[in-house]
Structures are given as structure tokens and as C-alpha cells.
From TrEMBL:
Keywords: ATP-binding, Nucleotide-binding, Transport
KW ATP-binding (keyword) present: yes
First and last residues shown, out of full length: 40 to 295 of 337
Chain ranges of the ABC transporter domain: 8-256
Protein's recorded name: ABC transporter domain-containing protein
């Protein structure tokens, strides 16, 4: 687990499904402890990029490193042990269980002695049920939804459900998290609040976040580094200011 340098690097990633070239020689780097945005229209290859970075799909060519270690052929659960968490575009919560139960069910994955699990009070030698519950509650507090600890997930609005999902991905104490459209279905105010929370978690927990998003403005306001995919190819990359100044990005996404 490096504290400097690059957390995650995908080099020359390509993958095709039949005739569809979902990724073509894509290069993406997430420097350690930064907030990286991945933008692009529907079908651009964003979720596929996450599947390849995460190990759910094997690229036809290209390599992936985590903190300098080659993980190209490593399975998703082994990448998780090295500190990679993710969420999916469609949420995978158990809607019949409470917020607490959903967070608690991710607690068994906690990696002992890493900064987040230690912060949650879950880093000690004893891994009792009570410690797990305390850690899940501490996460609930961090997410700003502690008043909903006992509530059924199905009774909560989208925004709060999104927070639980993010919390679940953080329970194991990842250094890198891949978030697939966490603001999907939220109105502008809720999306804004969610991005502020993510930015705060990123800084407080020293996370490297890569986030796929449709909501271009929020990404440009919060990210350190932005990549834009289109039809499987990188269209632009750089600081938010650089990407926002790109004529193609302006025309396609910013309406100017
Ligand atoms: P995005 O997340 O940017 O909307 P995706 O990564 O989901 O895009 O999809 C990129 C392209 O790859 C699309 O044309 C999609 O139809 C295709 N695709 C993705 N997954 C599969 C699959 N398992 N089989 C066939 N085609 C796929
Ligand atoms: Mg997608």
C-alpha cells in the first residue's frame, strides 16, 4: 500500500465483445489519494473499464497495476485484498434489511490494521460481533445517515441508498474505490451533497476514488483529474480546467 505515486494504472487496455470494441488502447492513471472522474456518454465503455480495472473482465490486451504491482490476471477478490473496492451501476443492497444490517454484512471483509478499519475502531485484535457493529455504526455516522440505522433500505430515498452502497464498499478499508454512477437518479441538490460527501471521505480517509458519472458539472467541480471516454477511446484527459476547455468536450457535454 503506497502513499505516493500511482494507485492504479491501466495501460493500453483493449477489450471487444464480438464486433463491439468496448475499449481501444485506453490509458488511465489514478495518482494515489486523488479524485478521478471518468466521463462519457452511454455505451462509451465506462462500466467495462471498471470491470477490467476490477478484474471482473480480462482485457484482450493491456496491463493493470495497483501500487506498482501487476494485477492484470488477478481475480477481483484478490484485488479487493490488495485494497480495491467498487460499487455497481445498479445497487446491490438488500432492500428488506435495515441500513445497519446492510453495512454490517460488509464488515466481515474488513482488512485488519488498515487506516479505515482502524479509524472505524475495527482494527484491533478482537473481531467480535460487537466490534463489527461498532464499525458499521461508525461508517453510518461518516455517511451522515446515523438516524436511519434501524430503517429498512426500501423505505429510504435514492440518495440515502446510494450512501449505504458507498459505505458498503468502504467497510473492508480499501485504498482505491471505483464508483459507478453514484449520483444516478438523484436530483441536482442531492447529487451535489453526495459529491461533497465523497470529496470529504476521499480527503479524510486518504482514498483514491475513480468515479464514473453522467453529471459532468459535478465531476468538473470536484475531481483532480478527468478522463473522457467516447466509443471505447479516450477523447480527452487532464485537469478539470483542461478538459472543460477542450473544444470537443465543450460542444458535446457543456453545450457551448
Ligand atoms: P457505459 O458504461 O459507458 O455506458 P459499457 O461499458 O456498459 O458503457 O458498454 C460499452 C459497450 O460495450 C456498449 O456498446 C455495450 O453494449 C458493450 N458491452 C458491454 N458489456 C457487454 C457484454 N457483456 N457483451 C456484449 N457487449 C457488451
Ligand atoms: Mg455504465
Amino acid at each position: 500500500r503506497g502513499d505516493s505515486g500511482d494507485a492504479l494504472v491501466g495501460s493500453n487496455l483493449s477489450i471487444a465483445f464480438g464486433g463491439v470494441k468496448a475499449l481501444q488502447n485506453v490509458n488511465i492513471t489514478a495518482p494515489s489519494k486523488t479524485f478521478v472522474g471518468l466521463l462519457g456518454p452511454n455505451g462509451a465503455g465506462k462500466s467495462t473499464c471498471f470491470d477490467v480495472l476490477n478484474g471482473l473482465k480480462t482485457p484482450d490486451s493491456g496491463t493493470i497495476t495497483m501500487f506498482g504491482k501487476d494485477v492484470t490476471t488477478m481475480r477481483p477478490w484478490d484485488r479487493a485484498k490488495l485494497g480495491m473496492g467498487r460499487t455497481f451501476q445498479a445497487n446491490r443492497l438488500n432492500h428488506d434489511l435495515s441500513v445497519g444490517e446492510n453495512l454490517l454484512s460488509a464488515a466481515h471483509l474488513a482488512i485488519k490494521g488498515n487506516p479505515i478499519t482502524t479509524l472505524l475502531g475495527f482494527g484491533g485484535p478482537r473481531k467480535s460481533e460487537q466490534r463489527a457493529t461498532e464499525a458499521a455504526y461508525a461508517m453510518c455516522v461518516l455517511l451522515g445517515i446515523k438516524d436511519h440505522w434501524h430503517d429498512r433500505v426500501s423505505d429510504l430515498d435514492f440518495g440515502r441508498q446510494r450512501r449505504i452502497e458507498i459505505g458498503r464498499s468502504l467497510m473492508c478499508g480499501p485504498a482505491i474505490v471505483l464508483l459507478d454512477e453514484p449520483a444516478a437518479g438523484l436530483d441536482a441538490d442531492d447529487a451535489h451533497a453526495l459529491f461533497a460527501l465523497l470529496r470529504q471521505l476521499q480527503r479524510d480517509l486518504g482514498l483514491t476514488i475513480i468515479l464514473v458519472e453522467h453529471y459532468v458539472k459535478a465531476v468538473l467541480e470536484n475531481a483532480d483529474l478527468v478522463y473522457v471516454l467516447n466509443q471505447g477511446q479516450l477523447l480527452a484527459s487532464g485537469s478539470p480546467a483542461e478538459v472543460a476547455a477542450d473544444p470537443v468536450v465543450r460542444a458535446e457535454y457543456l453545450g457551448s
